[in-house]
């Protein structure tokens, strides 16, 4: 592993290295990006050959693209992938032809409502070619003959996903995922993998983990379908919570979580609970409209408890999917803040579990175990100190396998984080075991 | 089939033909009424011989009654079935005797609180005889000898029910039922069968039906028990909604639905849903007190999702079960309005179903099927056009067999009627199949 | 049986006989107290030998204590069990030693915040010795040599519980329990067994009981664990409601019920229901913190529907567990009032049951059974008299085994007590049978 540190300069440099790469859902740019990240976390790759059937989909051929530009009648490059790689429609087929401005129009994409922005456009599953430019540039195009050159190939290759696991003491698992397939876009792309890298290092440092933490990077949609084709059954059995991470930069001070479809996962419940105890994140309901890989995890055949977190994605932002989504717009500081906020939530998740009382018939004799006073003599000032004893009594009485610690903390009126001492004391006396 | 048209004059003439017939829960008047209606819809009869055990009940003998009158001391007919057939207590036994006014009083029924109204009285299961008259007539009766003549017989015969089915593309069934056993009463009798006839013709015209629509006419209570003895098991398996229709005339502008006992049938849910989308009908909770055949369908052994619709029945009306319940009180126009309103609700019911997504693992590739843009390029004005695409995404994600289209429409915030295009598109691509 | 009467003088005399006895969780004082009560109700004893394993606990040796006193340097008895038996720490081991005031302090218990009160202290499961005195007495202790004398023995013997059952017509059972182990304390001890005795006599007089009523007296905590070790399986099968009774005296006018853990027992539901119909008792949620034997009955392995009733216990009172908890503080009149209030609630509980309609397919023919008019002629004044008929229709329709009479009364809007006539009429016609 190369040297990692959680500093703005480290993240800024890493961003700068990743930003210019021409990524897509397959191909050399994606693999190059994984390789850069794998210097700092031990990524393993799974490959799905072109043509592989993945549920209702087929893994497409790899797209390789060496150059793409559009020459105006004066020979000026009015669009050029070499300048900014979203200026070519991603997955464009090869072309080398002259054509009039009029004929060219059908191959040009621009946004009249955002005249300075170059849009990001893809056509993965239908053969097309095209160029993206700002509306201003488009309006300035001169009549005459244009030359469109795209030097690209579709090659039988593979689609790659990258992952690593930090093991815990149980079979239960937490998924932390981000996607990596957009070319030079900052907030809606690189912010996710960069925060995921930071979380990996934070969680790796914990002295104990109840849950396995699985970190996955994949191209969007088709990549998460590949993940599910390999791990769907495993997830259905073991996953207690999942989180798709994207758009972790930008202005908003607080994170916003889009909850899972059934809103009944451990993280779903915890997010509401923590809001009662000084956590300020927002919560919005699941919807299959818009969104990202969480739609696949939450499809009706899987219904996994996977949420999606961002700062601004769920409400939309002006720079989205355009050349305006830059490092300056995103910022590096918000990424470090996101790492910090998410770790706090995962630390609370570690205390969130369903336990079973191993001595359910009556109360266990706590006095014998040093967990309860052996003398029935209560002074007023003592009753004020009984907080932890109260946690113990609550946990023992309600841990019948039907209530988790978040629900028990709610019944008592405290945060599940506050119950950590009592949970660990009862676990160490084998009075509670994880269900 | 004879010529049918949905006009006031057609319905007025048909009403006039049916009104004067002496109906009861058995006997020639009931069969004659069925025969008249069967000119306009293909009714099939089921017969239950007198003495047949039907659950806790026994089919009574047929009641035939040729004449019934009461002569006062001057030989004036102060009650006469020939004038108005509710002037004899329905199911009266034969009598031909002279008796004093004093002795006669126990055989006379009148309503002091409605002095001009002749009440409608029956005694199906206990032998009695009697006459009904207005309180005004009763108060004017002179002392002296009266002669009571009822020429009636109880005959081993049968009880008849009449039905027809408009088939649909699934096994699931909708019941539309009304009762036909009261003699000359308008709103609380003939309005129901007449509206049922109109609905039959409306639904028959639909190009496609998901559900079978079963139309049943029967004498009240004992008739619906006979229906259940024959079809109860079938209904428990297939019935998704049922509706007992009566009192479709009178003043109130809007229909009122008494919901089913468990209030969890498809129609129950739809009725609330439609109220959020410009439908103005009222809803009241089920009760086993009062009411009609829905009480039998909703008995604890069946608990069928059968509602009951009327304009005024559920709140009560002054003319109920008296000679004041006339064609003038009822009106013909409200019947045609009822047909129209009920058809709209049944059209919505056709879109209300539980579907299963046949490609539940991840999202199906909609682009391949022409249901989704193959180019990822969204302009603001386009996102406004995505309504149908949104319906598709909602239907696919939530159709896991646990949610019906009404619930999915509620989640999206539209009417289930608005989702018709998307439902049919997904069905035609075999992406959704009815559960 | 000796002569019993529900009068203040009878209860006052019985209290006076029981109060001075040195009780503990085992030993001769407990047995003597049972024997006194068994003059007035037929108690049977179950004995658990010292050393018996009871779930996670072990029955302790019997504690016998003949004398216990503390002599000050002048030979004055500053603490003396013979004066008030809470002046010795309950379950103190034997001691006979001289020691300085300084060394003595660790063996003295007093309450600075209640300077006149002698606290009640126990140490059942850890060997200790000590004396209890008021803070005022403690502050006046002179320096010098003290002599501590406790003449006590731990003897292999047994722990005893006492019970009797009033049989009902079904297998279902109601538990009424109180504890008897504190020495001279009034409200938080003797009030419970005395009210239990009164309830026994009230319920014995009923002409009919649907439920078995089991009355149990036991030492607190370890005693209820012994009860559960013997009857836990029986209770899980048959118990529909339970009530731990204590602190039935003191100021508060109304009883307060702490509900069972799952708050879904028959008594839980009834208590809320009765509050809608002129009953004024209070209701508080279950908690495993504080409380008495209901904690054992509501432990996760049993989760029995056992509530706990008191006047003041659940909110706490100044005199609790001190020498201030006297007959004068408690009062005798509140005990008789408690008997009266609790009997009314148990009478309502007798009407609270889940029945099954034996004729669930359609409505049974009530006319044949004299339960419904055979003539369909309703006058306005009659419809006002139909209350009982309405109860009958409600009970028949909703008695499908999933709803009890309390829920059905709620649906109709009356008290379950009001439905007694209809319930008994339908039972006597075998139209309803208890589930």
Could you walk me through the main structural features you see in this protein, from its secondary elements to its overall organization?
The structure is a homotrimer of 435-residue chains. The first copy, chain A, has 435 residues and is α/β, with parallel strands linked by helices. The first copy, chain A, has 14 helices and 19 strands. The first copy, chain A, has an 8-stranded mixed β-sheet, sandwiched between helices. Chain A has a 4-stranded antiparallel β-sheet with strand order 5-4-9-6. A 3-stranded antiparallel β-sheet of chain A has the order 18-17-19. Chain B binds chain C through residues 54-57, 109, 111-113, 119, 121-123, 125-126, 128, 221, 224-225, 228, 232, 261, 288-289, 295-296, 298-303, and chain C through 357, 359-365, 367-368, 374-377, 379-380, 390, 393-394, 396-400.
Which descriptors apply to this entry?
homotrimer, 435 residues, alpha/beta, Aminopeptidase, Glucose Oxidase, domain 1, Arc Repressor Mutant, subunit A, 8-stranded mixed sheet, 4-stranded antiparallel sheet, 14 helices, elongated
Topology, element by element:
3 copies of one chain form a homotrimer.
Chain A: H1 8-18, H2 28-37, E1 44-49, E2 53-54, E3 57-58, E4 62-71, E5 77-80, E6 95-100, H3 101-104, E7 108-109, E8 131-132, H4 135-139, E9 145-155, E10 158-166, E11 173-179, H5 186-204, E12 212-218, H6 222-238, E13 239-245, E14 256-258, H7 266-275, E15 282-284, H8 294-297, E16 306-310, H9 327-330, H10 333-350, E17 354-357, H11 380-383, H12 387-398, E18 400-404, H13 405-412, H14 420-428, E19 432-434
Parallel strand pairs in A: 7-8, 11-12, 11-13, 13-16, 14-15
Antiparallel strand pairs in A: 1-10, 2-3, 4-5, 4-9, 6-9, 10-12, 14-16, 17-18, 17-19
Helix pairs in contact in A: 5-10, 12-13, 12-14
Domain DUF4910 (chains A, B, C): 13-351
Pfam families (chains A, B, C): DUF2172 (PF09940), DUF4910 (PF16254), HTH_47 (PF16221)
Organism (chains A, B, C): Pseudoalteromonas fenneropenaei
């Amino acid at each position: 592993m190369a040297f990692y540190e959680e500093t703005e300069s480290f993240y800024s440099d890493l961003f700068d290295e990743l930003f210019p790469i021409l990524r897509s859902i397959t191909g050399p740019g994606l693999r190059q990006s994984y390789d850069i990240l794998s210097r700092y976390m031990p990524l393993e790759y799974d490959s799905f050959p072109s043509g592989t059937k993945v549920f209702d989909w087929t893994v497409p051929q790899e797209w390789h693209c060496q150059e793409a530009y559009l020459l105006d009648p004066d020979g000026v490059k009015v669009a050029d992938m070499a300048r900014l790689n979203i200026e070519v429609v991603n997955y464009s087929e090869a072309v080398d032809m002259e054509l009039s401005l009029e004929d060219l129009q059908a191959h040009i994409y621009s946004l009249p409502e955002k005249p300075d922005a170059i849009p990001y456009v893809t056509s993965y599953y239908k053969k097309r070619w095209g160029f993206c430019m700002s509306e201003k540039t488009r309006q300035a195009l001169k009549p005459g003959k244009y030359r469109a050159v795209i030097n690209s190939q579709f090659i039988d290759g593979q689609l790659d996903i990258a992952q690593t696991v930090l093991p815990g003491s149980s079979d239960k698992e937490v998924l932390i995922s981000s996607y990596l397939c957009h070319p030079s876009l900052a907030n809606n792309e690189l912010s996710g993998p960069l925060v995921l890298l930071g979380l990996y290092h934070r969680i790796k440092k914990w002295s104990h983990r109840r849950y396995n933490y699985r970190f996955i990077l994949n191209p969007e949609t088709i990549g998460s379908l590949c993940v599910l084709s390999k791990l769907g059954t495993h997830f259905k059995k073991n996953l207690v919570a999942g989180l798709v991470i994207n758009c972790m930069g930008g202005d908003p001070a607080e994170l916003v979580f889009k909850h899972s479809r059934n809103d009944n996962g451990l993280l779903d419940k915890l997010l509401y609970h923590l809001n009662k105890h000084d956590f300020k994140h927002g919560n919005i309901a699941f919807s299959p409209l818009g969104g990202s890989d969480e739609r696949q995890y939450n499809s009706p055949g899987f219904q996994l408890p996977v949420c999606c977190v961002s700062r601004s994605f769920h409400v939309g932002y002006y720079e989205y999917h355009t050349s305006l989504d830059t490092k300056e717009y995103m910022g590096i500081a918000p990424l470090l803040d996101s790492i910090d906020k998410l770790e706090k939530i995962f630390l609370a998740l570690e205390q969130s579990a369903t336990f079973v009382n191993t001595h359910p018939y009556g109360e266990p004799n706590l006095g014998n175990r040093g967990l309860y006073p052996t003398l029935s003599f209560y002074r007023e000032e003592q009753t004020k100190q009984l907080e932890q004893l109260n946690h113990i009594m609550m946990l023992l009485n309600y841990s019948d396998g039907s209530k988790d610690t978040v629900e028990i903390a709610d019944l008592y009126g405290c945060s599940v984080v506050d119950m950590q001492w009592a949970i660990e004391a009862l676990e160490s006396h084998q009075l509670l075991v994880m269900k």
